[in-house]
Amino acid sequence: MNRIAQGIVLALLGAGALSSTVVSDLYLNYVQPGFRPFLIAAGAVLIGLGAAVVAAEARSALAGRDDGAGADSCCSTGDGHGHGAPRVAWLLLLPVLAVFVVAPPALGSYTAENAATAAPPRDGGEGADFEEVAGGSGPVEMKVQEFVVRAWTDEKRTMEGLTIRLTGFAVPNPDGEGWYLARLQMACCAADAIVNRVLITNRPEPPEDSWWRVEGTWQPPEGPVQDARDHRFEVESMEEVDNPPDPYE
Amino acid sequence: MPERPAGPAPAAHASLGDSLATGWDEPDGALPPPEWGRPRGPRRLATVWGFALFTLALVAGNAWLSDRLAGEAFLAWATVFTAISLQALPFLVFGVALSGALTAFVPASFYRRVMPANPFAAVPAAGAAGMVLPGCECASVPVAGGLIRRGVAPAAALTFLLAAPAINPVVLAATAVAFAGQPEMVLARLAASFGTAVVVGWVWARLGRTDWLRLPGAHHDPQAPRWQVFRDSMVHDLMHAGGFLVVGALAAATVNVVVPREWVAAVADMPVVSVLVLALFAIVLSVCSEADAFVAVSLTEFSPTAKLAFLVVGPMVDLKLIALQGGTFGWSFVRRFVPLTLAAALAFTFVIGGVLL
I need a surface site. Which of A166, B9, B87, B121 has the fewest CB within 10 A? Predict the structure, then answer.
């Protein structure tokens, strides 16, 4: 890999980072919204660095200089052959291809069926420090994640009878009745996504991966709340939504 | 590893090789005759044209291919791969910039003043420094390389490499949030990670040999302007570490999508095996250290000690990191350093887990 190729690879990588943050909201499919400034900064640095390398190369080409010294003369690859950057550096083009050509969508029902489901919080009585659900007149907007945690810890069953609004995507239930409304929870990037889901049985199953905003009520389990396997949700109304701008919560 | 011929002529031949077009495989060390300098222009031009075509292909692919790619498993894999790459990118850029700045702008005498001269005293100091500086594992590898380049004892730099991603304030705060109501988990993570980093550093100070480490890009023209040293150091580190980071991301994404979580959960009841399985899981999953506590807390079937193994091993040994270290320090280093670190991390997990959890 010669110097000019190194410069262009870096610039392309930077372009990938910038185009997925500045031009589109593609990055939300992969990382947290808070990552945006870091990605922009990294993209700008990479483009600047690549441009500087290419410019230096172009200058020395115009001057007819052979600028081996100080350029890529310093490097031998790990296995001792080849000049300049190691061949493995070509792999830096793979993320570029992934962003520009594949542009993979946010994780959806395929992952929701296979990934780990969120676990019931350990019984430390932390359910008690929930602030009371705002009781007002209208439905209460809630993250699926919050709903699931409450449903597992809400021993006083304060959520019972409240109209709650949830947003998520449809996932089939492979073993049993009904379907799941699911949302993926992400701590850092899509590699650590965890599924939160509620079981809906009183509406026909919509197409897999379609997004819905549902209003309805929690169906508390018969036994202790911590032992519940699925959180049942009785739907009063549901409307289809376009993919929300941030697919994760 | 042969760096560069140590002779007086800093060979003007190297960049003749590897461009898109092949056929310029120069034997190492042979200076090309002067007239060979002439085809350089066309060769550079060929590279530029090659990339122009590649960019056109990108645009075409974006227009026609993006919406036609199907296959849920492939797309999930591609998403996880892109996620790991993008998530690591800012940390990698930040790390190589810091490393380049250490090389270009901080005089070597500074480190000699700050770090204790005796490596055995420098190791705990480096571990404590890791506690202060927030940094992802992708950033700490090039920074450790930069420190070694500036004459810091390798043992101390390696302790910093292990400690910084494992016990920095961001990671400890994330652990406290994930394990709400279990402060002993944060304490156990801190103790076991710090212990591992320091012990590995001491072992390296005692037994480590310099020739196991390929010191990255130690050569630069002392007369070159500082910004140029900075730039070249950054490019060099990005080229060496970045490609391997992609290798690690490929492997981690594959494991993430292919291995069902039920397999992991099936062994949760066996006391020692479950610890080893979660350690292995941490190695192959390569989740960044800021997020691993959230993954660990979701593995509810497992004992606290097994979760501790996930938290201690993950930031120090994982696929992405092994590839990155191999690219930066060479494979003869990785062959020795990784097993040592893994053994120390597991030992500390069992001891601290037995005492605290």
Answer: B9
Given A75, A102, A129, the domain boundary residue is: A102
Look up the domain containing A158 and give its range.
109-240
Total domains in the fold of chain A? 2
- What tokens does B1 get? 């590893």
> What whole-number distance in Å separates Cα of residue A241 and Cα of residue A141?
15
The top-scoring range by mean pLDDT among B4-13, B93-102, B194-203, B323-332 is: B194-203
Do residues A118 and A212 share a domain?
yes
Pick from B80, B217, B294: which is nearest to A187 by CB? Answer: B294
- Give the predicted TM-score (pTM) of the model: 0.77
CA B120 to chain centre: 24
Q: Please check whether residue A20 lies inside any domain of the structure.
A: yes
Whether the per-residue pLDDT at A32 is higher than 70: the answer is: yes
Quote the distance between the C-alpha of residue B104 and its chain's center.
21
For residue B83, the chain A residues in CB contact (below 8 A) are 29-31, 189-191
CA distance B117 to chain A (A): 29
Assess whether A95 and A125 both reside in one domain.
Answer: no
Q: How far does B79 lie from chain A, in Å, by closest CA?
A: 5
Pairing of the two strands A164-172 and A211-219: antiparallel
B236 shares contact with chain A (CB less than 8 Å) = yes
- Residue in A52, A70, A78 nearest the CB of B326: A78
